[in-house]
Amino acid sequence: MKKLLLLLLGFVGLQLQLSAQSLTAITPNSGTVGQNQITTTITGSNIFFTSISQWGNLENVELRNGSGSISVFNYMGGNWNAFVNTQDVADVTWDIPTNAVAGVYDVCVTTLDPGMPWVYYYDTLYSAFTINPPDGYVSGSLYYDANANGIRDGGETGLSNMVVQLTGPSNYTVYTNTNGDFSFGVANGSYTLTAGSPGRQYHFTSPSTIPVTVSNNNTSGLDIGAIDPLYAMSPRVGFRGQANINATVNAYDNIFTTSGNPWGNISYGYLTRVVGGA
Is the pLDDT of residue 116 over 90? Predict the structure, then answer.
């Protein structure tokens, strides 16, 4: 009898919880295909639970419509970019994929009952978030400027996997393809385009920071040249068995830093044979 009573109480409590909680809004309620680091505030009534972790009892947040789903937050997937402020408010920072289908989406939230961790609650805010198509496109390329003249000449190859960012009213990030080309679909506004390279340093032979304004138009031809930052070594000749050569290496940019040790930030250096020798 006691077990039955407990089960009934648990069932009644579950029903009360389900009827008491609801989603009310997501702000902002729109974004653009490819937009990065958009922070949305999800509000509701008795939806969330604050705890030791910043994401509280959030398990999953996603957008859904007939074209599929877009992940906003996923605890099991290690995507912990959420912060539960109160029982009624949570902030989530996420990216809209570059291949997202423009349209109106439902916002679907899954939370965990903190008292009964095997119980999940599913709440949906219908037709709540709109993904807009781009107002215009920004495109160009990054290339190896072999003669360092700041102009892409015939035979100069593109640099792949270079990171290009647009910052402004919204933020966007893309990587160059195998040909060194990049393209953004963006919303109207004034932006700053910045090029860089993850894991390797380059010296840019043309401006790597460019102002861009999109007003229902496309901007193309933003080609940025780059070369290796080291340009000289002296002496340039040595002999087999020669010891304790004092060499000076020169660079275009401030890639070296001083510190408490004489070698600064240099981890190692080596020579690669390119022609001649035995």
Answer: no
